Amino acid sequence: MNEAVLMNEAGPEPALAVRNLSVRYRSGWRQQPVTAVDDVSFDIATGETVGLVGESGSGKSTIAKAVLGLQSPCAGRITLNGRDITHTSVRQRRSMVGELRAVFQDPFSSLSPFQTVGQTVAEPLRRQQVSAGRARELAAGAITSVGLPEDALSRYPHQFSGGQRQRIALARALVSDPDVIVMDEPVSALDLSTQAQVLNLLAELRDRRRHALLFVAHDLGVVRFLCQRVIVLYHGMVMEAGPAADVTARPKHPYSVALTAAVPVPRPGEQATRRAVRRAVTAQASAGAGQWNASAGPGSAGCPFAPRCPEATDVCRAQRPLPRQLEGRLVACHHAR
Amino acid sequence: MSGTATRAQARAAARPAPGRGRLPRSLRSAGGIFGAGWLLLLAVLSATASLWQPYRPDAQNLFVRLQGPGSSHWLGTDDLGRDTLTRVFAASGPALLAAALSVVVAFAVAVPLVLAAAEHGRRVERLASRGAEVMLALPVTIILLALVGAVGGGDTYLIMTVLGLLMAAPVYRTLLGVAQSLHRRLYIDAARVDGVGPVRIGIRYILPGMATVTAVQASQLFGLSVLIQSGLAFMGFGPAEPAPSWGGMIATASQDLYTDPWMMVPAGVVLALTVIAANELGDALAASPHEQERKRLRPRARRKPVPRPVKPEPRPLTPASPLKSVAPASGAPLLEVTDLSLGLAAGPPVVTSLTLRLAAGRVLGLVGESGCGKTLSALAVLGLLPPEVSLSSGSIRFEGRELAGMSERQLRPLRGRGIAMIPQDPMVALDPLFTVGSQLTAQLRRFRRIGSKEATRLAIEQLRLVGIADPARALRARPYELSGGMAQRVTIAMALAGQPRLLIADEPTTALDVTVQAEILDLLRGLVEDTGVAVIIVSHDMGVIADICDEVAVMYAGHIVEQGTATAVLEDPWHPYTTALLAASPHLAADQQVPERLVMIPGQVPAPGRWPGGCRFAPRCPFAEQRCQEPVDLAPHGGPGASGTLVRCARAKELRELRAAVQLASGDRGLAEERS
Description:
The complex is a heterodimer of chains A (337) and B (676).
Chain A: H1 2-6, E1 16-25, E2 34-44, E3 49-53, H2 60-68, E4 75-80, E5 83-84, H3 90-93, E6 100-103, H4 117-126, H5 132-145, H6 162-174, E7 180-184, H7 192-208, E8 212-217, H8 220-226, E9 229-234, E10 237-243, H9 244-249, H10 254-262, H11 268-284, H12 314-318, E11 324-326, E12 329-331
Parallel strand pairs in A: 3-8, 3-9, 6-7, 7-8
Antiparallel strand pairs in A: 1-2, 1-4, 4-5, 9-10, 10-12, 11-12
Chain B: H1 3-14, H2 22-26, H3 30-47, H4 49-52, H5 84-120, H6 122-137, H7 140-151, H8 156-183, H9 186-193, H10 198-209, H11 211-237, H12 246-255, H13 264-297, E1 335-344, E2 349-358, E3 363-367, H14 374-382, E4 389-398, E5 401-402, H15 408-411, E6 419-422, H16 426-429, H17 436-448, H18 452-465, H19 471-476, H20 484-495, E7 502-506, H21 514-531, E8 534-539, H22 542-548, E9 551-556, E10 559-565, H23 566-571, H24 576-584, E11 635-636, E12 646-647, H25 652-675
Parallel strand pairs in B: 3-8, 3-9, 6-7, 7-8
Antiparallel strand pairs in B: 1-2, 1-4, 4-5, 9-10, 10-12, 11-12
Helix pairs in contact in B: 1-3, 3-5, 3-13, 5-6, 5-8, 5-11, 6-8, 7-8, 8-10, 8-11, 11-12, 11-13, 12-13, 17-18, 18-20, 20-21
């Protein structure tokens, strides 16, 4: 039932489909496994940009890693253009280089310092047995499409600034013209003016090309600017999912409400009002609860957000709310309306 | 031998990472030049020995036994009348070769194991590591002696190969750590997503990263290997007579030590120099990454001794100063920074003419992009500038006392008690080895001179003050057991331990999640309201500034471009940089429409020393014109009315009128659309 809602109406087959994905980590051999992602499902259609938002520990990066094959899921299924890629090895992934690519958060460590930009950008092509000349041509095309001069190819990453490096990382993703690009916090390490430049470049990409973008971010403002749909995660579970404009402007789930209210806007007047609201909410909720992460963690019966939620009642602590449809979006809350 | 040759050799020895070019530079240190030079000299002399040797190494002349240095035998002769110079250098070739062999064997065994262990994860790693541990437990000397007993001492190369095998274990241990940390780098993940296989990842991505450590280890092992080799030869397990070896020559010399001590000198000195050269080379190679690291960490180096300010010229504020219009001060200001300039030692200025006033119970925000000098400005108040930055002029008055020019010793009683600091990343600032309680009570006891019981009581009170729900439990916890938000609350409690009047917070919420950030900002605001402490907050986030600050100073390229109350500056900005920063932010209020594209500020903040002569923002400013090439002063605009903002822009007034006109026009259009 829920899947039907998450499916995009536009296309018959999504570019990327994630079904009931769960990921568990085991930190030590005697430790209890920690559930990082708990039964998450979503689709991304061709040409669509979907934001995955949450705080640290919400499982958003783990989902990106699972899609990229860097983390093996313990349950669920991931399909790329209809092909099951849940447990494919690196060797098998070589053939998918043309379909699935990634941009990582930290442009300072995501580019090998030992290779020229040209080698880095052309690397995925070389795995596909593209001829050296053709690869150079494509790399030059990719690097100019992100607004860097062609001679950047012969230089090393340390000769570029953070914003330029992130453009290089983007060029590496674009060079094989993939169907799906996973972006894990691509602008969070950048300065404000550089961030605006890269965000505009991504917006350009979103409007001009037909890539499906999975955009992982902790910054709701960035997601609101860039994404068509947004999925709000908390403790590895989907709290709310729907059109980005609706969810960010009129959130329904108490967690989305808290998250949107917490993002500070550069208007002192509005921030003063928000502070007053926040103070009222904290006074209402048991002060300081949840600090110790003694919350109903994943795996427990109740809603994961209940310990921090100002509107939590007994049913929230006893029963995990199932995602239900509410005005064109999915909300996993007993009380949202 | 020319310097170029030295560097060429050094380059070959160091196996530099391509495109970095920093290893050869590191060898320009005295130790590096000596180490590489000496080893190269030895290699050349022994390789060309047949061309210059005055005698054959085994040519005896019993008439000239045990001679000192002379014209026919420069370094004298041994007990059989053989030329010492010839023999020392005849021995060097095989010695160096054998030592190199052991090093090559050690790395040839260790490196593939390291790559496999790092790539294949726990199972392979355990197997290889247990093997290495067994090897490490073996007594090297005894095994070598046993081997000598079995095969005889003549076969140096076989013995050195075995030595290499034994040395592979410590090499493995060292390199494994490096490889594992490299494996966690994002670019390895990126390569995997690119479809790069494990072998290629090892060769193209991991090996270059291990180059420096490999070079350091290799040169040290080389020295060790030369020593072990000579030791064996000294005991009589070296190359059989009459073949020369350093250890053998020293052994021979030791028999005549009392009658002819000279004989000991040439072989001993050459052996010592060779071992020292190898170690010096290793040190020089090891120094280079550290230097890099230090450079990278430099902006954050806070515990370095603070240099005395060069020339403090306190300049009192004149009543006619334009600054009077900033912040209608209630009483005497707590902090008064006047015309402060900071400069790199013998370099360009990094902050110029900074003037700030802060009253008790007020929050001042310093905002700007990275590289604008906002962190340095805040650190200057604490006297905690990094060593290469010094105060070149201006005054810092805190509670009426002049801080500029104070020595470290004079500043110390003020730190923590008068002015305290909240760090950026609490997890880095707290010591993971000690409990929160011991760190907090230590602070309290130091600042308030109280007993431990009293300190614990106060610590609980402090933790409650910063909003920690279960303070007793928090005291027992170690920092890593805390969430990020709690850790930041603890560092705030520690900063408050000395009851400071001024808190300096450098990006105090950047490392935190937004909801936690909101809590911490609320906490700080509450502390300001309750205790009357003043806060200087450094941030790049206009939202954070809007949330907590009363006053704002927008910094660009080392000086303030706009200064005033937060409401005035953020809701009604004058300077094009402030306007652009606000428009570049994707954080919008719920009722604001999402723009199609964000406003971009082209280019980057110019580095200190590259600031334009006129308006420093002019090259990036869309409104710059001819008169922006002249320096601009920070001046009040809009009169001394309610918004007494100071702006550093020649066209401020004009631009404002222009903007108002545009807004009016678009408003009219909106109105017209609404009507139609």
